[in-house]
């Protein structure tokens, strides 16, 4: 099984190796293939512009070929690779005979929301991964199958997400929406019971999304315009381990006291904001990034509420460089409380 997954991943990755000579390489490959007797038995249904290797009967490789349309996908195909082409639209019905599809790989095309039919993906009841990143989409495609676990929509032009876009997608575990122009996501993540990773870096958010799913472990919100964190935001997401809020507009006023003092948190990135104080964090936190803020004092009580031999912080990485403090501001007792930190960058 692992070997199969590896083969499939190669389908995505190998383009980095063949990008330079690909355009003509695939053509000569195509022309050559009729001479091989081994192609004939299984491959009669393979579209001319694609490769369907006999060694992997359910995969169809059509990447890096200047395609402008999705070719016919035979019904036996489970994995279709269409990345790095010039596909602008997909009409309803194109995948209707390919209901076994598990992976549809379409990143690095020119997909335009107005040219995608309302039911292009809706019949794909087994679809697991849908990779649509690096296109020109302005909306999330409608009627996505509820079976999807990995949905990638990063690096598009999505500005608004309709409330029903992800409705009922109870198996979705990873949702990538980074590098779009999203301002508001009111309630759209409600009901995503399995979601563990939400990537919304480089958007136009002014607030932390509300109704975050209960199982969320990784929340990436760097490069937005977030000014504050709501009271109790982490107690509503008890599974969160990694919270990244670097390059926002956070100030002390926007952080309720103790909002980050949550024992499940492992990594907190608040670098490149406007904080003047070190927020109180849990003793279980391991990585804390606070560089490039306006911090003026080193408050040991932010890490340990009492100083003694037995209670200490698990912190390993602490960055405080590019603030308004120096090594002289760190008290000697820090050595007890922060005994796992190898060195503090100031
Ligand atoms: C699907 O298969 C049927 C029967 O084999 C065929 O008539 C039809 O044209 C196919 N549809 C598409 C979109 O290729
Ligand atoms: C979600 O995953 C479970 C377990 O793998 C599966 O039984 C179920 O059919 C999936 N739901 C959908 C809508 O595909
Ligand atoms: C952080 O939370 C823990 C556990 O809830 C609590 O014991 C501790 O006093 C809190 N730290 C501060 C500085 O309030």
UniProtKB/TrEMBL annotation:
One GO cellular component term: extracellular space
Keywords, in A-Z order: Disulfide bond, Extracellular matrix, Glycoprotein, Leucine-rich repeat, Proteoglycan, Repeat, Secreted, Signal
Domain LRRNT span(s) in chain numbering: 45-79
Record carries keyword Disulfide bond: yes
Keyword Disulfide bond attributed: yes
Signal peptide span: 1-18
Gene3D superfamilies linked: Ribonuclease Inhibitor
One Pfam family this sequence matches: LRRNT
Principal location: secreted
Localization of this protein: Secreted, Extracellular space, Extracellular matrix
Function: Affects the rate of fibrils formation. May have a primary role in collagen fibrillogenesis.
Family the UniProt entry places it in: Belongs to the small leucine-rich proteoglycan (SLRP) family. SLRP class II subfamily.
Subunit (UniProt): Binds to type I and type II collagen.
Protein name as annotated: Fibromodulin
Organism: Pleuronectes platessa (European plaice)
């Amino acid at each position: 099984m692992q070997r199969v997954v590896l083969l499939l991943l190669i389908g995505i990755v190998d383009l980095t190796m063949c990008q330079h000579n690909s355009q003509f390489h695939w053509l000569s490959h195509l022309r050559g293939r009729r001479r091989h007797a081994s192609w004939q038995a299984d491959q009669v249904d393979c579209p001319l512009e694609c490769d369907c290797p006999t060694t992997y009967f359910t995969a169809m490789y059509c990447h890096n070929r200047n395609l402008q349309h999705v070719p016919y996908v035979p019904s036996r195909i489970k994995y279709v690779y269409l990345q790095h082409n010039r596909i602008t639209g997909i009409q309803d019905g194109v995948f209707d005979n390919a209901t076994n599809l598990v992976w549809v790989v379409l990143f690095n095309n020119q997909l335009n929301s107005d040219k995608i039919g309302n039911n292009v993906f809706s019949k794909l009841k087994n679809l697991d991964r849908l990779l649509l990143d690096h296109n020109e989409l302005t909306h999330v495609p409608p009627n996505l199958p509820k079976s999807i676990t990995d949905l990638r929509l990063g690096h598009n032009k999505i500005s608004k997400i309709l409330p029903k876009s992800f409705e009922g997608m109870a198996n979705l575990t990873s949702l990538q929406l980074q590098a779009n122009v999203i301002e508001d996501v009111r309630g759209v993540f409600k009901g995503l019971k399995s979601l563990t990773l939400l990537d919304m870096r480089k958007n136009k958010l002014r607030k932390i999304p509300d109704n975050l799913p209960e199982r969320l472990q990784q929340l990436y919100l760097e490069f937005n315009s977030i000014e504050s964190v709501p009271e109790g935001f982490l107690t509503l997401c008890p599974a969160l381990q990694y919270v990244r809020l670097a390059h926002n507009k956070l100030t002390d006023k926007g952080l309720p006291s103790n909002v980050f003092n949550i024992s499940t948190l492992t990594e907190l990135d608040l670098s490149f904001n406007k904080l003047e104080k070190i927020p109180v964090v849990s003793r279980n936190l391991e990585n804390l990034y606070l560089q490039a803020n306006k911090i003026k004092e080193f408050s040991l009580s932010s890490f340990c509420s009492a100083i003694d031999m037995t209670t200490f912080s698990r912190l390993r990485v602490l960055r405080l460089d590019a603030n308004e403090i120096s090594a002289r501001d760190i008290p000697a007792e820090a050595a007890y409380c922060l005994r796992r930190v190898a060195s503090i960058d100031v």
